[in-house]
Design goal:
single chain, about 60% helix, elongated, two-stranded antiparallel ribbon
Length: about 210
């Protein structure tokens, strides 16, 4: 691999490695097929790139020599371009996957909790509705995760994706438990607020609720 390729390798975003990772499993796939697979696997524990991102990364990977593509022949009604990983791409991906320094810490961006944090601007009933809606969505996602596990469990080549999906299953179960606890916390906060005498609002610039 040339020095210019090494420099480009270091600049690849996680999306590029995720797309190349999808190509690392047996078979050739179209961009649309890669998107479908990302939606039924990656999104449960990381995220699913948009179809436009997938095609942009496929072009980048081809330029680097990490992926190759070929158009289908006249036997297909609609021509399709299928992509495959190259030996150089597999080698680069293996190196990236083994480099724990690049993994980084997990990042939590919980939209519901941001709204709970601003609960003093909302009504208790509305907050409970938000949590209930979140729990309903989480149950639906859990069912989708379990369906994905069922499809992949008996495929030897997907043994490690199944491990990631089983982690996602446990994570969704934990999210349901946390949501139930949050409902209890909201009820307790509402009880305490009702038991306290009304107080004047603090002046702007008052003490923060946390040290610092």
């Amino acid at each position: 691999m040339t020095s210019s390729h090494i420099a480009k390798k270091q600049d690849l975003p996680p999306t590029a490695w995720a797309v190349l990772g999808l190509l690392s499993f047996p078979g050739e796939r179209t961009g649309y097929e890669l998107k479908k697979w990302a939606d039924s696997s990656l999104r449960f524990f990381y995220w699913s790139p948009a179809i436009s991102q997938i095609y942009a990364e496929l072009r980048r990977l081809e330029e680097l020599g990490y992926a190759s593509s070929a158009r289908s022949g006249p036997e297909e009604v609609r021509a399709k371009r299928r992509y495959a990983i190259t030996d150089a791409g597999r080698q680069a991906l293996a190196g990236w996957a083994a480099d724990t320094a690049e993994a980084g810490p997990p990042v939590l961006k919980h939209g519901l909790l941001l709204r709970i944090w601003l609960g003093h601007l909302s009504e208790p009933e509305r907050l409970r509705e938000m949590v209930a809606d979140h729990l309903e969505r989480t149950r639906a996602e859990l069912a989708a995760v379990r369906e994905a596990v069922g499809h992949a469990a008996d495929v030897p080549e997907w043994a490690f994706p199944v491990l990631a999906l089983r982690w996602a299953e446990r994570q969704h179960l934990a999210e349901l438990e946390l949501g139930g606890a949050l409902l209890a916390d909201l009820a307790e906060a509402e009880r305490r607020a009702g038991a306290r005498p009304a107080r004047a609002e603090r002046q702007a610039g008052g003490d923060a609720p946390t040290p610092g």
